[in-house]
Amino acid sequence: MNFQINSFEEYQDAYKKSVENPEQFWGEIADHFFWKRKWNNVLNWNFTEPNIKWFEGGKLNITENCLDRHIYQNGDTPAIIWEPNDPTEAHRILTYKQLLAKVEQFANVLKNNNVRKGDRVCIYLPMVPELVIAILACARIGAIHSVVFGGFSAQSIADRINDAECKLVITADGGFRGPKVLELKSIVDDALMQCKSVEKVIVLTRSRTPVSMIKGRDVWWEDEIKKVETQDNPPCPAEEMDSEDPLFVLYTSGSTGKPKGVVHTTAGYMVYTGYTFSNVFQYQPGEVYFCTADIGWITGHSYIVYGPLSQGATSLMFEGVPTYPDAGRFWDIVEKYKVNILYTAPTAIRSLMAFGDSFIEGKDLSSLKKLGSVGEPINKEAWEWYHEKIGRGKAPITDTWWQTENGGILIAPLPGITPTIPSYAMLPLPGVQPCLMDENGNELEGNDVSGNLCIKFPWPGMLRTTWGDHERCRQTYFTAYKNMYFTGDGCYRSPEGYYRITGRVDDVLNVSGHRIGTAELENAINMHSDVVESAIVGYPHPVKGQGIYAYVIANHHIDAEGTRKDILQTVTRLIGAIAKPDIIQFVTDLPKTRSGKIMRRILRKIAEGELSSLGDTTTLQDPTVVEKIIEGAEKLRK
Fold first, then answer.
1. Which of 112, 211, 239, 540 could serve as a FRET partner for 342 with CA atoms 20 to 30 Å apart?
2. Segment holding 251, helix H or strand E
3. What pLDDT is attached to residue 455?
4. What span, in angstroms and rounded, lies between the C-alpha atoms of 122 and 164?
């Protein structure tokens, strides 16, 4: 593919063209992909409804672009390298030819189990190659996949299955994460007690954990594959899809209690992930690319599966965690496979920094040419450690900013091409038109300004709607500022015009790069029988970036330590361990305005220890509440 930018001048030219004539710009990029039928219009849009259509009238299948078209020249190129959780277990490599065969095979399994174009399929699998195969098999036949991260609880899975009305679930007997075994099938069984829409469950053998198989509903992956093989293993032609047909639904936390299903469609998402992968990582044929994300999140969708495979890249996926069996695991993997590009999260970097440099010593990291960071802004200390210790001062870092709703990276340096400054996402990619807005809806012109980050023009990878609730999509992203997409993030634009993300400005926390809605978490805590009310805020955390601080009003008779443990269990059961509060402070009351609104600004300052800047508390119903909360917070700190 020759749409890769190779110099700063080329970046400036591409950016200028993408703003002045976006339809021509994206039409030329899209020409590099395989279409069954070309589009009539490149773009049709308004941000009021919102209504966004890219490559209208085009017909395609994303799997032909990720698999079939690479077969003739690069069929024997590794598509997926899989490194298991346990380093003593054999790794697996699937070439493009092998991956296509397995995808066609499993696509036929889905058809045999009555899955058709437009049906929703929930996937709850560990990080094994079969996860990629299942995703692509859904896309092959036009089914809409909804991948759920393996750390979510039964309740969270049930909520997502019911919202999308999934017809089939794909899971495993269990999975491994470091020394732990996750009992995935039993969690799915608990979830399905609440789900009427599910007809079949396909179960992969991974951990050999004993499971109950329900007759007529549950079938083994391996048995279903054998049935297809006895039918002479026929190929599975790719279903013709419309450009705007939904490809997948991915659930993300919002500022209300219920997770929202972000819908990405076929053509725009494909074009955008392919283009951004090629440019942001400056991918060259033959390079080994390692993204450490879980496919349960958008980073895994876009930059383990669709982006790399659309460009014929070799994508390494890892089942385990960076600290198992010890904190040198990432560096062992880099050395073992001669990884050229490493894309990971600031949380992982800070965590590995804390273990000291002994785990890096003696490891050959000389293959690394480019480093990437994703999930949250990377702080200066972590950036410098990553650059010096891992990149040996030679590998440029691309600090990427984007979100689930964006489909792909929006603001990032191009390694070796555009400038980099620690903790800055730097410059927008071609086609992305950011702007900073003040609280009154005015655009902040010029540089050296801070405001709310909005995007004023559509890009192909953006969400189209939230599943089953278009009004929620409109309210969440398109009403705060007229004719703008509102990101929910604050941003600073430097005197040179570089962008630095300053964090969330809505009621959403960014914990270890994962978004957790405060309302969803408060709802879960409030389910505990001894809890009267709760309020959640974020506070600076040395490893996670943001920690979760819970202020809880409980019944008077509680045993504080026992209730604290119960609350953590409740959150784990209803959402997942990922959402457990780091600090729980029991309080007698919360600071509220006379209209009953909780003043989170004050709670945030107390959690941060910023007691000199609490602001005016005279508007509160009872200003003395603040003093009592401060006293309690200081005791907790001791």
1. 540
2. strand 246-252
3. 98
4. 9
* Last residue within a domain, chosen from 214, 242, 270: 242
Buried-exposed string 308-326: b where 16+ CB fall within 10 A, e elsewhere:
bbbbbbbbbbbbbbbbbee
Q: How many helices (H) and strands (E) does the chain have?
A: 20, 30
- Is residue 538 included in any domain, yes or no? yes
For residue 207, the number of C-alpha atoms closer than 13 Å in the C-beta half-sphere is: 24
pTM: 0.89
Question: How many domains, the chain?
Answer: 2
| Residue 195 confidence (pLDDT) | 96
> Is 151 within 8 Å of 293 (Cβ atoms)?
no
The domain that contains 600 carries what CATH number? 3.30.300.30
Is 34 domain-assigned? no
**Residue found under tokens 């590099």:** 32
Q: Where does a domain end: 242, 273, 300?
A: 242
Q: In this structure, what CATH number is given to the domain that contains residue 118?
A: 3.40.50.980
Please state the separation of Cα 131 from the chain's center in Å.
16
Q: Does residue 365 lie within any of the structural domains? A: no
Task: Indicate the length of the chain as a whole number.
Answer: 638
Is 457 part of a structural domain of the chain?
A: no
Mean of the pLDDT values across residues 512-526?
Answer: 81
Give the amino acid at 559: D
State the Rg of the chain over Cα.
Answer: 24
Which residue pairs from 19-26 have beta carbons closer than 8 angstroms and sit at least 24 positions apart in sequence? Answer: 19/433, 19/457, 22/431, 22/457, 25/430, 25/431, 26/54, 26/271, 26/431, 26/460
Contact between 235 and 137 under an 8 Å Cβ cutoff? The reply is: no
Percent helix, strand and coil across the chain, each rounded to 5? 35, 25, 40
pLDDT tens figures, 211-267 = 999 999 999 999 999 999 876 667 899 999 999 999 999 998 765 567 899 999 999
Task: List the domain range (segments joined by +) for residue 220.
Answer: 95-242
Residue 40 DSSP code: S
Above 70 in pLDDT, residue 2? yes
Mean pLDDT calculated for residue range 288-317: 97
Provide the pLDDT for residue 183. 95
- Which residues, at least 6 apart from 325, have a Cβ–Cβ distance to it below 8 Å? 87
